[in-house]
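S1.2 Input.
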Amino acid sequence: MTVAYWIVAALLAVFYGYAGGKKVLQGKEQLRPMMGWVDTIPMPAVRAIGTLEILGAIGLVLPPLTGVAPWLALVAAAGFGVLQVGATALHLSRGEKNVIGLNLVLVVLAAAAAWLATVWVG
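S1.3 Output.
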């Protein structure tokens, strides 16, 4: 179970670290081609989402790696699941049914990471 967790956690951490970094560091004009929804959400909220994604990526990796509060990995994974449910709802409200495939994959990966992270919850 531990190896499976690290595989899933690494995939999620790389994805969210990259996506969160883009949201934090780039402007609306640079994000728009890949994330058209940035026009419907205030930039401070986009930056906050990016910051949460970076913190979640760290939360998936650092606590289990150091053994300090490893239950935070479960919290981070659950947070990513909630984030993707919200992202799916946003895309559906914008009529973007064709782009929710990635959101659904990320929900499944987040659920798998949360389940696998229960190994550290006593």
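S1.4 Remarks. The CA atoms of residues 74 and 118 lie 7 Å apart.
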